[in-house]
Design a protein that fits this description.
alpha+beta, globular
């Protein structure tokens, strides 16, 4: 399973269940870019959430990927 499919199937539903919105925008080697939108863009626990995503990715995929977030406070783009 690739990182994007795993992220969309395993991570996104968990985050949305808490009212958040994360979108994987780029995965390149050992780093992945994530856009944090809506409530996630303002959340003080975002760094902890991304550590959880990294640990889960290590367990599920056997990959050690660092997730870096760009905060975008709106669900729509200009």
């Amino acid at each position: 399973m690739d990182v994007k499919t795993w992220f969309d199937n395993e991570i996104v539903p968990c985050v949305r269940a808490d009212g958040g919105w994360l979108e994987l925008t780029e995965a390149d080697g050992d780093t992945a870019a994530v856009t944090a939108m809506g409530e996630c863009a303002h959340c003080a626990a975002l760094d902890g959430c991304l550590r959880w995503v990294r640990e889960k990715g290590n367990r599920d995929l056997g990959l050690d990927i660092r997730f870096v977030a760009k905060r975008e406070p709106f669900l729509w783009r200009k």
